Amino acid sequence: MEHRFDNQTAGCCAPTARRSTETATPTAHEGGRPPASLAPLPGGTFLMGDDSAWAYPGDGEGPRHEVTVDAFAIDKYTVTNAGFAAFADATGYRTDAERYGWSFVFAGQLPEDAPPTRSVVGAPWWRQVEGADWRHPFGPDSGIDDIGDHPVVHASWDDAQAFCVWSGTRLPTEAEWEYAARAGSADPFPWGPDLEPGGEHRMNVFHGRFPRTDPGAHLGTMPVDAFAPNDFGLHNVTGNVWEWCADWFAPGYYRHSPSENPTGPTRGAGRVMRGGSYLCHLSYCRRYRVSARQGSEPVSSTGNLGFRVAKD
After folding, report:
1. 3-state DSSP call for residue 272?
2. Is the pLDDT of residue 23 over 50?
3. I want to staple 281 with a disulfide (CB 3.0 to 4.6 A). Which of 61, 150, 206, 305 is the partner?
């Protein structure tokens, strides 16, 4: 028999399941080096958010408002499996998924003979898979030997924070993330106003009639440099994997957020995720845009959620 979780988000977004209110505080060890691929950005003023027909009002994408951020650096790529392995091997760090013994995997990525497992209410394509973690993205019989250049997944917000401590970096604020993703553009996508200009795919998103993929279509992560960068040199800021930001998430935050270096609410139930993932599709989840936002519990982990780092 299948058991189901209550869920606050669905589709391409990260499902939320409160596992425990008594979680262990992750520990980290300093000693790693910041990625060599950090891109220095001068800072500046831009229009943040979206209140067009593309936006989801319930996510708090609007109102569109002017924001100024100071100079900072941000990685051109999301953290890879190889990069996270260097951290875990050097420190012995165990992720939340490893400690809990399970994580969420998209059902379409499981083998046909996979054992029955619990699903998420309203999003049965999300399955609780025992033994799924960053080293075993689809369960205990899977591995990352051939995908070292893909983004690490099944990494919680707390796991991302631990990596940052080790590498001397930090997570970008939501405002910094959008400033970097827009790269001076006011359009919904890093490359312009059209989803597929000239019929060309510019990001890794879902192809098919969700939750069923087109025959032969790729399903899952791609290398972190799989598509052309934006004008700031950042790759895959939309599609591929959702990316954790530093801020707490609140749908109404933009209505009163400061115009200079906003850092989010002082508290909340979830942390901000940005950029959408390989499961986004126009028919049900158009969150593969530079203004799209969602929130998830800091201990949650899924097969489509990773992070990129920043530095002052």
Report:
1. strand
2. no
3. 206
Q: Exposed, middle or buried, 19 (CB in 10 Å: 0-12/13-18/19+)? A: middle
Residue with tokens 């994408």: 61
Q: Is 168's pLDDT higher than 50?
A: yes
Handedness of CA 63, 57, 15, 265 (dihedral sign): positive
**234 residue type, one letter:** L
Reported pTM: 0.93
Locus of tokens 């800072």 = 43
* pLDDT tens by residue, 237-261: 999 999 999 999 999 999 999 999 9
Residue 220 has pLDDT above 60, yes or no: yes
- Residue 187 backbone zone (phi > 0: left; psi -120 to 50: alpha; other: beta): beta
User: Which residue shows structure tokens 């939501």?
Assistant: 174
Q: Strand (E) positions, the chain?
A: 4-5, 38-41, 44-48, 65-69, 72-75, 102-106, 119-120, 123-130, 208-209, 212-213, 242-248, 271-274, 293-296, 305-306, 310-311
